[in-house]
Amino acid sequence: MSFFNQRGIFLQLMQPSPSEPNTRVSLQLARKELSWDAENKMQIEELVDSTYYTAKSTDLGNSFSIETVSNDVDGDGTIGADDKAKLQALAKAYASIVNP
Ligand SMILES: [Ca+2]
User: Fold this and answer.
1) Cα of 13 from ligand 1 centre, angstroms
2) Which residues pair with 10 in a beta bridge?
3) How far does residue 20's CA lie from ligand 1's centre (Å)?
4) Is the predicted pLDDT of residue 15 greater than 70, yes or no?
5) Ligand 1 centre from 55 Cα, in Å?
6) Radius of gyration from C-alpha coordinates of the chain
7) End-to-end CA separation in angstroms for the chain
8) pLDDT tens per residue, range 54-78
């Protein structure tokens, strides 16, 4: 997370494997908090308020589903299908990005 980013979403892609036939994308929504460690005289970056989701695809990354979304990620005041759709779209986009 860069200096300018105070909020972030970390993504990790897990390709199908013998033990897990589905493509999965793990999403971590977090906020960055900066504080000063006086003892060691250094700035500390900490991720707080993390929420984790796992998006699952049974069709090799063409479509993703997330069971339950508990965040109002689009800020429209309600938690619902639109929030889920945005996170699922993000997972799909990420699954098609091979580097990193
Ligand atoms: Ca919403």
Assistant:
1) 24
2) 28
3) 31
4) yes
5) 18
6) 16
7) 14
8) 999 999 999 999 999 999 999 999 9
Please identify every residue whose CB atom is under 5 Å from ligand 1, which is an ion. 72, 74, 76, 83
Alpha carbon distance 49, 77 (integer Å): 18
pLDDT of residue 30: 94
Tokens linked to 39:
């003892």
Average pLDDT, the chain: 92
Would you list the domain boundaries of the chain? Answer: 7-95
Q: What are phi and psi of 68, to 5 degrees?
A: -135, 135
What is the 89 CA–ligand 1 centroid distance (Å)? 14
Per the listing, tokens 């892609």 go with 13
- Ligand 1 centroid to Cα of residue 83, in Å, is 5
> For residue 68, what are the CA distances in angstroms to 27, 44, 95?
13, 32, 20
| Residue 1: pLDDT over 60 | no
- Cα(29) to centroid(ligand 1), Å: 15
